[in-house]
Amino acid sequence: MFRFAVVFVHALIFLAVTIVGLAGKYNPAPPEPDANYWPWFMMFVIFNLLVIISAIVQLRIKKIWVFIVSVVGLFAIFLLTLQYIWPFIGVNFLGM
Q1: How far is the C-alpha of 84 from the C-alpha of 90, rounded, in Å?
Q2: Would you say 3 and 59 are in contact if contact means Cβ atoms under 8 Å apart?
Q3: I want to staple 10 with a disulfide (CB 3.0 to 4.6 A). Which of 22, 36, 46, 55 is the partner?
Q4: Alpha carbons 45 and 50: distance in angstroms, whole number
């Protein structure tokens, strides 16, 4: 059951980050004239690597408290990086 929970939660985080990361590039709004998406994509690639590393570590350690701390940490990092992409989410959701 622990293995399923680790894989399921990390897969959900991975998919959410990937969808948000690709939505910036492939949206219906007109693109900015000098838009450079490499920093944006690299941020999500690095974050997805953190998710994969976290899942591997969780499957080896098998401690509930480490799992909870890492998932909360990944979620917090995701919200902090999300406010730089969509500032209105950071203002409304995080109270900043």
Answers
A1: 8
A2: yes
A3: 55
A4: 9
Q: Between 33 and 76, where is the model more confident?
A: 76
Q: How far apart are CA 95 and CA 57, in angstroms?
A: 32
Cβ burial of 17 (10 Å; 0-12, 13-18, 19+) is buried
Q: Give me the pLDDT at residue 90, please.
A: 46
Q: What is the mean pLDDT of the chain?
A: 78
Tokens of 65: 């408290």
> Locate tokens 């998406």: which residue?
37
Helix (H) / strand (E) element for 2: namely: helix 2-23
Residue for token pair 């950071």: 90
Enumerate residues 6+ apart whose C-beta is below 8 A from 85.
Answer: 20, 24, 40
Are 67 and 58 spatial neighbours (Cβ–Cβ below 8 Å)?
Answer: yes
Q: Contact at 8 Å (CB) between 86 and 24?
A: no
Distance CA 83, CA 47 (A): 15
Task: Tally the residues of the chain.
Answer: 96
